[in-house]
Specification:
single chain, 1113 residues, alpha/beta, six-stranded mixed beta sheet, 48 helices, 6% strand, elongated, CHAT domain-containing protein
Length: 1113
C-alpha cells in the first residue's frame, strides 16, 4: 500500500521541483526496499534500481547525500546480480561504491556505510572469481568501517557483520583458524549491537550459525555444531513464513543437520535435512545464483543416505542434482571445483556399488580436473587429493596398474602433510593412507608397507572420538591390517587384537547400517584365520555365524552378500571335518544361490552382467559344488534344481522377461499388462559402453532409466508374489515344473566338480536318474579341453585352403584320444544307464535322441562325437544316438511353450531368409562357397519361398529385417566368438558391419522356428563362462528360435554346400511330412547331413564334421 501511495504522489509533483522529486523518490525507494526484504521479488529490485538511478541523477554532485545515494544504488545492483547470472551489475556496483567512498566525508558514519557496501561487493566478486586481492581489500575496508562508525550508531552491527563474513571467507580460502575465530567473535558482537526485534537479526543468527558449522568442520567440536543448529532454529523462529530469508535459514539448517548425521549417524537428522533441502529447492527460482549451491547440498545429503541405507535411487538422485549444480555453475566460479569434487565422489561410490568401469574412469577424470582447479594453498586441497587417491587405489584393485597405487600413496602423503593437526579430516586421510599401503603390501609383499599402514591406522583410531560414527570403520580397518600381519608373521598377539577390534567394530555398527555386513564379513575372516592355526571347532562356529550374519543383514550390498555367502561355502569346503552336518553345508550353498540374482541385476547392461560373471568365477564353481554336495547328501532333485537355478543366469533373466502371463492376466489383467510393458522395456535397452569414458548426459540418463525400470520390475514381482496363488510367480522351478524339458527325449545334465562327477538324466515323465561317473574328473576334463583346444588352435575363421585342413589334421591323435576318453568315462556310462528310457522315447527303426547339458569344461567338449575311432568296429556315439545340446532345461521348456502357442502353420514351403557373404570387406579370407551354399538351399524349395541377400545386399539392417520377416534363417558368413572379455560382442560379419550377440538378444522373434548358422564358432562359448553358454547360438535361442544349427569351432568353406544340401533335403522331407504345429525334427536332419559329410570327408577328418551341433527342440 505504501509503495502504491508513493507512486501516486510522484505523479503530482510538478516539473522543475527536483528537490521534491528526489525526496519523493527516496521515500518510494525506502518502501520498495522494505518490501524487497519481505518478499524478495526481482521486480521490486528492478523498480528500486530505476528509482535509485533517478535519485542519483536528481542529486547534485556536491550534495552531502550523494555518497549514500551512490552506495545504495551499488547495493541494489549487487542485489540484482545475486538474482541473475550476469556479472555486469556487480562490476557497475563496485564502480558506484568506489565513487561513493571517494565522495563521502572523511571520518564520518556515511563513510563507514559506503566502505561496508564496497567491501560487500568486493567479497561477492571474490566468491565468484577467486581473486584474493578482492577479499583482502574487503577485509581492509570492513576494518576501517568498523573503526569509523560509533558504537551507538544503528549501522554498527552491519559493519561488524560484513567484517565477520569477510574474515570467514578468508578462512575458507586460506585455512587460517585465527580468521575463523575472529569472524565468530565479530559476528557475536554484531548480534549484541542489533536490537532483539530488528528485522535483520535472523540474518545475523544465520550467518553466525554458518561460521560455527565451519569451525566444527575444521576443529571437530560437536558443541559448535549443536550451537549452530540451535542458532538456526532461533533464526527460523524470528523469520515469518513467506519471508525470502526463511529459505536461506532452512537451507543452512538442513546442511547442519546433515553434518550432524555424518558425525553421529542419527538417521532422523538426515531425513529432516533431505526434506528441508527439497523444500528449499522448490522455493528457489531457476536462474538464481544460489541454485547450484542448494543442488549441491541436496546431492551431498542424498549420498549420505545411500552410504547409510544402501538405496541406489538415492545415489542416482545425488548424481543427477550434482550434475545440475555443475552445469549451472560458470567455469570461472570457484565453487565449480567443489561441486565437481562432490560429483566425482558420488560417481566413484556408484562404481563401487555397480562395478561399471566407466563410472570410475569418469570420477578420476573429474578429480584430476578438480586438483588442477584448486590452488596449492587452498584448505580444500588435501581433501581433494584424498578423494583422487581413493579413486586411483580402487582402479588399481580393479585393473592392477602399479602406477595407480604409487600415485595413490604419493597423493595421500601430500594430503597428510597439507592437513593441519586438529583438522577432523586428518584421521580420514591417515585411514586412507593406511588402506593404500596395505593394498601395495598385498601386491608387492613388502612388510614395511604393512607395518607403516598399522602405525598410520593406529593414529587414525586415536584421532577419532569415541562417539564418532566412523569409529567402527577405523577399528575394522586396523583389525584387518593386524590380521594381514598375523598371516605373514604368525604373531598370536596380532590376530587376538584383530579379533577384539573387529568385534568392537561390529558392536558399534547399528543393525540397520549398510556397512554392518562388511564388518561381520571382516570378523568372520579373522575367526577363519585363527581357525587355520587352531583347528578349534568354536572358531569354525564363530566364523560361520559371522558369515551367516553378514549374508542376512539388511540392508546389504549385493556384492557383499555374495562374498559372505561364498566365504561360508569356502569355509565348509576347507574344513569338512568341522562341518556339524550336511544341512549346514547345504544351507551355505543355498545362501549363495539366493545371493546371485541381486548381484547379476537386470538394472545393468547384459555386457556388464557377463563381465561380472567372468570376473567372479567362484559363482559358477560354487553352483557345481552345490550340486555335488546335494548329490552326496542324496538330494538328487535338489541338485538338479540348483543347477538349473544357478547356471545360464543371463539367459534365465532373458527368458523370464518373455515368459507367458496367462495365469496372471486371467486374474489380474492390469498387473499383467504393466509387467509385460516393463519387461519389454528392459529387453530393448542397449548395453552401455564401458570402453570410452566420457561424461555423456544422454548415456547417463539412459542408464538411470534402465535402473529405474529394473527396480520397478522387481517391485512389481514383489507385489505379484504377495497375491494369493502367485507366491512362486517367476521363481525357481521345482522338479515338476522342469519335467516338460524332456518331452523331446532324455536330458543329461553332466556335472564336473573336484569332489565328484555325475550325470543327472531327466527322463519322461519327470524322473531323475542319477548316473555316477567315478572314472571321470575335473582334472581330466580340463586336460581334454586343452588337448582339443590345441588341435583346433588358429582356426578363428571359416577357411577354404586345403593346407588349412591339412594343418589342423595334425591334431587327429589328440582328437581321437579325447573322443575315446569321453566315450568310456562319460557318454557310454550314461547311455548304458538309461538304455531302456532311450528306447522308450524313440520311434521304431530310428536312433534314440539325447539332449546334453554339460557343466564346466565339459561344456566345450564334443559329447555328440564321443567314440572309439582307433579300433575297427569301435562304438561311436553318432552311430548309436542323435545328439542335441541345450544351455539349460529352462531353454527347452521355453521353446516348448513357444511352439505350443503358435497355432496352425501353412504346410507348403516355409519362408526362408538366406544371407551370404562371399567376400566381406576387411574381414578374413574370401568365402566363395557361401554363395554356392545359398543357391543349393534355394533349389530345395519352391520359387518365392526363399529370400536371398548376397554380398553388398546383406547389410546388418537388411539381415535383421529379414530375420524379423521369416521363420527360417540361414547365415553363411564369417563369425567370431569374442574372447576380449565381452561375449555380447560375438558377431556375424556382414557387408557393412557386425550383427552382434547383444543386438540379437534385443530381438523378439516369436514366429521364428529354425536358424542355421553356417559360420564359425557360433556355439564355441567363452572359457571364462562355462556355465553361461555365452555364444551366438544361445542368443538365437533367446531371440525366439526353437532350433539352431551351429558350430563349436571353425568350419571349412567348401563343406558348407555339402552339409546344407543334405540338411535342407532332410528338413524339406520332415516339413512336408509333419502335421500343423508338429516337430520339424531338426536334430535328426542335422544328424543325417553330418553323417553324409562324415562319409565324404573321411571319419577321421574330425575338424570338418565334428563342429556341427544342434541346440533346442
Amino acid at each position: 500500500m505504501a509503495v502504491a501511495t508513493c507512486q501516486l504522489a510522484l505523479d503530482y509533483i510538478p516539473d522543475g521541483h527536483d528537490h521534491l522529486l528526489s525526496d519523493a523518490y527516496s521515500t518510494y525507494l525506502s518502501h520498495l526496499q522494505s518490501r524487497l526484504v519481505q518478499l524478495g521479488r526481482l521486480t521490486d529490485v528492478e523498480d528500486a534500481i530505476t528509482a535509485g538511478r533517478l535519485i542519483v541523477k536528481l542529486t547534485p554532485a556536491e550534495h552531502p547525500s550523494t555518497s549514500i545515494h551512490l552506495s545504495n544504488l551499488g547495493r541494489l545492483l549487487l542485489t540484482r546480480s545475486n538474482f541473475l547470472i550476469e556479472d555486469t551489475d556487480l562490476e557497475e556496483a563496485i564502480l558506484m561504491q568506489r565513487s561513493a567512498v571517494d565522495s563521502a566525508p572523511p571520518e564520518d558514519a556515511d563513510k563507514a556505510l559506503c566502505l561496508t557496501n564496497l567491501a560487500l561487493s568486493l567479497r561477492t566478486r571474490f566468491e565468484r572469481l577467486d581473486q584474493l586481492t578482492d577479499l583482502e581489500d574487503a577485509i581492509s575496508f570492513s576494518h576501517r568501517a568498523a573503526e569509523l562508525i560509533p558504537d551507538t550508531h544503528p549501522y554498527k552491527s552491519t559493519c561488524l557483520e560484513n567484517l565477520g563474513l569477510s574474515l570467514r571467507s578468508r578462512f575458507k580460502r586460506l585455512g587460517e583458524v585465527a580468521d575463523l575465530e575472529q569472524a565468530i567473535l565479530v559476528q557475536r558482537s554484531a548480534l549484541e549491537a542489533i536490537p532483539g526485534n530488528h528485522p535483520r537479526r535472523s540474518g545475523y543468527l544465520n550467518d553466525l550459525a554458518i561460521s560455527l558449522r565451519v569451525r566444527f568442520r575444521r576443529l571437530g567440536e560437536l558443541s559448535d555444531l549443536d550451537n549452530a543448529i540451535t542458532t538456526l532454529r532461533n533464526a527460523m523462529d524470528l523469520t515469518p513464513e513467506g519471508h525470502p530469508w526463511r529459505i536461506s535459514h532452512l537451507s543452512n539448517l538442513a546442511s547442519s543437520l546433515g553434518n550432524r548425521f555424518k558425525r553421529l549417524g542419527d538417521l532422523t537428522d538426515l531425513e529432516s535435512a533431505i526434506l528441508a533441502q527439497r523444500e528449499v529447492l522448490t522455493l528457489t527460482p531457476n536462474g538464481a545464483r544460489i541454485k547450484p549451491r542448494r543442488l549441491n547440498n541436496l546431492g551431498i545429503s542424498l549420498k549420505f543416505r545411500f552410504d547409510r541405507v544402501g538405496e541406489l535411487a538415492a545415489l542416482d538422485d545425488a548424481i543427477a542434482v550434482q550434475r545440475s549444480a555443475v552445469e549451472l555453475t560458470p567455469d570461472e566460479n570457484p565453487d565449480k571445483a567443489e561441486f565437481l569434487n562432490n560429483l566425482a565422489v558420488s560417481i566413484r561410490i556408484r562404481f563401487m556399488r555397480l562395478g561399471e568401469l566407466v563410472d570410475l574412469e569418469n570420477a578420476i577424470a573429474v578429480e584430476r580436473s578438480v586438483i588442477r582447479l584448486t590452488p596449492d594453498r587452498h584448505p580444500e586441497k588435501p581433501r581433494r587429493l584424498n578423494n583422487l587417491s581413493n579413486s586411483l587405489r580402487i582402479r588399481f584393485e580393479r585393473l592392477g596398474d602399479l602406477g595407480d597405487i604409487e600415485d595413490t600413496i604419493s597423493a595421500q602423503r601430500s594430503a597428510v602433510e597439507l592437513t593441519p593437526d586438529g583438522n577432523p579430516d586428518k584421521p580420514v586421510i591417515f585411514n586412507n593412507l593406511a588402506f593404500a599401503l596395505r593394498t601395495r603390501f598385498q601386491r608387492l609383499g613388502e612388510l614395511a608397507d604393512l607395518d607403516e599402514a598399522i602405525a598410520k591406522q593406529r593414529i587414525a583410531k586415536e584421532l577419532t572420538p569415541d562417539e564418532h560414527v566412523d569409529r567402527s570403520h577405523r577399528l575394522g580397518v586396523l583389525g584387518g591390517l593386524l590380521q594381514s600381519r598375523f598371516e605373514r608373521l604368525g604373531e598370536p598377539g596380532d590376530v587376538e587384537e584383530a579379533t577384539s577390534l573387529l568385534q568392537d567394530a561390529v558392536a558399534l555398527t547399528p543393525y540397520d547400517h549398510y556397512e554392518r555386513s562388511a564388518r561381520l564379513l571382516e570378523l568372520g575372516m579373522a575367526w577363519r584365520t585363527r581357525l587355520n592355526h587352531s583347528l578349534d571347532p568354536s572358531h569354525f562356529k564363530l566364523a560361520y555365524n559371522s558369515f551367516l550374519g553378514a549374508v542376512r543383514t539388511e540392508p546389504c550390498p549385493p556384492n557383499g552378500r555374495l562374498v559372505a555367502a561364498l566365504a561360508a561355502t569356502s569355509l565348509c569346503a576347507e574344513f569338512p571335518e568341522l562341518v556339524p552336518s550336511q544341512d549346514t553345508l547345504l544351507q551355505a550353498y543355498k545362501l549363495v544361490l539366493e545371493a546371485i540374482p541381486p548381484f547379476i541385476w537386470l538394472g545393468q547392461s547384459v555386457s556388464h552382467r557377463f563381465k561380472q560373471l567372468s570376473t567372479n568365477h567362484q559363482i559358477g564353481e560354487s553352483i557345481v559344488a552345490a550340486a555335488a554336495a546335494a548329490i552326496t547328501a542324496g538330494k538328487i532333485p535338489m541338485a538338479l534344481e540348483w543347477l538349473e537355478e544357478g547356471r545360464a543366469l543371463i539367459w534365465g533373466q532373458h527368458t523370464r522377461l518373455r515368459s507367458p502371463m496367462e495365469g496372471l492376466r486371467a486374474r489380474h489383467p492390469e498387473l499383467a499388462d504393466e509387467l509385460q510393458r516393463v519387461s519389454a522395456s528392459l529387453q530393448n535397452i542397449e548395453s552401455r559402453d564401458d570402453s570410452a569414458p566420457s561424461w555423456d548426459s544422454t548415456l547417463e540418463d539412459e542408464a538411470r532409466r534402465h535402473r529405474d525400470q529394473a527396480q520397478y520390475y522387481d517391485d512389481l514381482l514383489v507385489r505379484i508374489r504377495a497375491l494369493d496363488g502367485f507366491e512362486s510367480f517367476l521363481c525357481r522351478k521345482g522338479l515338476a515344473e522342469l519335467a516338460p524339458a524332456c518331452q523331446s527325449g532324455p536330458v543329461a545334465v553332466l556335472t564336473v566338480h573336484s569332489s565328484r562327477c555325475d550325470a543327472l538324466v531327466l527322463c519322461p515323465p519327470g524322473r531323475v536318474i542319477h548316473v555316477p561317473l567315478p572314472d571321470f574328473s575335473l582334472a581330466l576334463a580340463n586336460k581334454m579341453y586343452l588337448m582339443i583346444s590345441d588341435s583346433i588352435r588358429g582356426r578363428d575363421a571359416r577357411f577354404q585352403e586345403d593346407r588349412a585342413v591339412m594343418k589342423h589334421n595334425l591334431g587327429r591323435d589328440d582328437m581321437r584320444r579325447v573322443l575315446r576318453l569321453l566315450w568310456y568315462r562319460a557318454v557310454q556310462p550314461v547311455l548304458s544307464a538309461i538304455e531302456s528310457e532311450l528306447v522308450a522315447c524313440s520311434a521304431p527303426n530310428e536312433l534314440p535322441r539325447i539332449i546334453w547339458c554339460a557343466t564346466g569344461p565339459l561344456a566345450f567338449l564334443p559329447l555328440h562325437a564321443a567314440g572309439v575311432y582307433d579300433t575297427p568296429g569301435g562304438l561311436k556315439a553318432p552311430d548309436l544316438i542323435v545328439s542335441s545340446y541345450t544351455p539349460s532345461l529352462n531353454a527347452l521348456i521355453t521353446r516348448t511353450w513357444l511352439a505350443a502357442g503358435e497355432g496352425p502353420r501353412s504346410i507348403p514351403d516355409p519362408r526362408i531368409f538366406v544371407a551370404s557373404q562371399p567376400d566381406t570387406p576387411d574381414i578374413g579370407s574370401p568365402l566363395p562357397y557361401t554363395t554356392i551354399e545359398a543357391e543349393a538351399l534355394s533349389r530345395q524349395f519352391s520359387c518365392g519361398s526363399v529370400t536371398h541377400l548376397n554380398h553388398e545386399r546383406a547389410t546388418v539392417d537388411a539381415v535383421v529385417d529379414g530375420m524379423e520377416r521369416h521363420a527360417w534363417v540361414h547365415l553363411a558368413c564369417h563369425g567370431i566368438q569374442d574372447q576380449g572379455g565381452d561375449p555380447t560382442k560375438s558377431a556375424f560379419f556382414l557387408y557393412d558391419g557386425r550383427l552382434s550377440l547383444e543386438r540379437i538378444m534385443r530381438m523378439d522373434l516369436d514366429h521364428a522356428e529354425l536358424a542355421v548358422l553356417s559360420a564359425c564358432q557360433t556355439a564355441k562359448g567363452d572359457e571364462r563362462l562355462p556355465e553361461e553358454a555365452a555364444h551366438l547360438a544361445a542368443g538365437m535361442l533367446a531371440a525366439g528360435y526353437k532350433a539352431v544349427v551351429a558350430t563349436m569351432w571353425s568350419i571349412a568353406d567348401r563343406d558348407g554346400p555339402v552339409l546344407s544340401d543334405a540338411l535342407y533335403m532332410a528338413l524339406r522331407r520332415n516339413h512336408e511330412g509333419r502335421e500343423a504345429g508338429g516337430d520339424l525334427r531338426v536334430a535328426y536332419a542335422l544328424h543325417e547331413a553330418v553323417t553324409k559329410l562324415r562319409s565324404e570327408v573321411g571319419e577321421e577328418s574330425f575338424a570338418r564334421w565334428v563342429p556341427f551341433i544342434h541346440l533346442g527342440i
